[in-house]
Amino acid sequence: MDAAVRVVRDFATRTDADLLLFPECFLQGYLVTEEHVRAAAAELASPGFGAVLARLADLRPMIVLGVIERAGDRFHNTAVVIKHGQVLGRYRKTFLTAGESIFTAGDDYPVFDCHGVRFGINICYDTQFREAAAAVAAGGARLLLVPAQNMLRRDSARHWEHRHHPIRARRARETGLWLISADVTGERPPDRLALGPTSVIDPAGRLVAHVPTGTTGLVTADLTPGPGTAGR
């Protein structure tokens, strides 16, 4: 968690973006074994998570951060919306993979506003289901954020390498939303590989910016809605 917070701070202090998106379960790391989830999960109102928020309080951008959330005796794959160290709200992943049985699915699609741009969230596998993006669009959003975590077995990573963008582009075209994804890259021994993609897709389904496959970086998009407002 300490390393993840340092990464958030690093990106937040070297960009003028109004909104920053980080990958799925980024704070504690996406590992859905019972041992890891039970040990790492955080209640959003807990002192431990409060200490994380305190370290983000001086940052200017709004931050959307992937978190393993504990809520009583349940666990959720959650994206938390944070501004100046305060939790503005959260989205809990609604479509879970077979390997995510330790999580409880969410049941709502909240929307948020950042400098005149309304946005909602789908998490990774949610994008396989058109109703998840449609629910965000129905809330009046202009932007769909997709924190993702495609750390896969090597053969699967290569199989999906060129399939993520077409799926996400389909959701953008169906809804007329901009879609911005943040994914992971790297390797996890002995056989896991992550290639991304972190990217920006416009409402016509066109890929307008992306971090090159297998590398780490930052992409930005200007969604300014009109004179005098900003929505990066």
Automatic annotation (TrEMBL):
Residue span, CN hydrolase domain: 1-225
Superkingdom of the source species: Bacteria
Pfam families from the UniProt entry: CN_hydrolase
Stored PANTHER family: CARBON-NITROGEN FAMILY, PUTATIVE (AFU_ORTHOLOGUE AFUA_5G02350)-RELATED (PTHR43674:SF16), NITRILASE C965.09-RELATED (PTHR43674)
Species annotation: Actinoplanes palleronii
Protein name, per record: CN hydrolase domain-containing protein
Keyword check for Transcription: no
Annotated keywords: Hydrolase
The UniProt record lists the keyword Hydrolase: yes
Alphabetical list of InterPro entries matching this protein: Aliph_Amidase/BUP, C-N_Hydrolase, C-N_Hydrolase_sf
SUPFAM superfamilies with a match to the protein in the record: Carbon-nitrogen hydrolase
